[in-house]
Amino acid sequence: MGNLKSTWRSTVNAGQPQVLNFFAVGDATVRTNPLYGRGCSSGVVHAHLLRQTLDTSDNPRTRAVLFDADTRKALRPFYDSMVKQDQQAIRRAEHERDPNYVPSFRAKMMKSFIEDAIGPASRGDIDILRAMSRAFHMIDDPTAWLKKPATLAGVMRFWVMPEKTKRARGFYPPKFGPERAQMLSRLNFAA
Fold first, then answer.
1. With contact defined as beta carbons under 8 Å apart, do 181 and 191 qualify?
2. 7-8 and 12-13: which strand pairing?
C-alpha cells in the first residue's frame, strides 16, 4: 500500500482529442488512494457519464471533448480533495516522526476542529452524518457539506461542547493504543 500515486489521465489536450472512439473509465482514468473507498463509486459515475456522452452525439470528436468535460466536472473535485488530504496526511506523518516539531497555532486549531468538532458531530448528529455521507458517496461536492450554514453551526456546537460531555456521550472513537512517541518509549526504541 506504500508509495501510492494518484493519477489523472485524459485523452484530450488543450481542447483537442488525442484519440477517437476510445473511452477510459474508472481507474483507467482516475486513480486515487484506496483508503477513500471511492473506486467503485467513481467507476459507476464515470460509466453513466459515458452512456450520456454516447447518447448525446455520434461525432467522435464531440464525444471525446464532451466526455472529458463531463468527467472533469463530476470527478475532478473529488480527485483534488483526495490528493490534498493525502498531502496533508504525509505532512502529519512527517511531523509525527520529528521529535522537534512544534505545531503552529493554525495546525493545532485544524487538528482540534477535525478531532473535537467534525468527528464528534458526525457521531452525535444524524443530519451532519448524512451531509458528510452525501459528500463521501459522491452525491454532493466533497466540500459542500461544511459550507451549509446549518451544518457548520451544528459542527461548531460540538466544537464548543465540553470534552467531558462528548466523551460521556460516546462522541469520540475508542482509543486503541498509545500515541507513537509513547509506544516507541515503551518499546525502548529511538524515535
1. yes
2. unpaired
Q: What is the pLDDT of residues 101-149, one digit of tens each?
A: 999 999 999 999 999 999 999 999 999 999 999 998 889 999 999 999 9
108: buried, middle or exposed (CB in 10 Å: 19+, 13-18, 0-12)? exposed
Alpha carbon distance 183, 55 (integer Å): 58
Indicate if the pLDDT at residue 13 is higher than 90. yes
What is the rounded CA–CA span in Å between residue 159 and residue 34? 29
Beta strands 16-17; 12-13: pairing state: antiparallel
- Count of other CB atoms within 10 angstroms of residue 74: 15
173's CB contacts (< 8 A; 6+ apart) are 119, 123
Cα dist. 169→75, 163, 186 in Å? Answer: 37, 10, 31
Specify the pLDDT at position 39.
86
Q: Residue 81 is placed in which grid cell?
A: 480533495
All cell numbers assigned to 174: 475508542
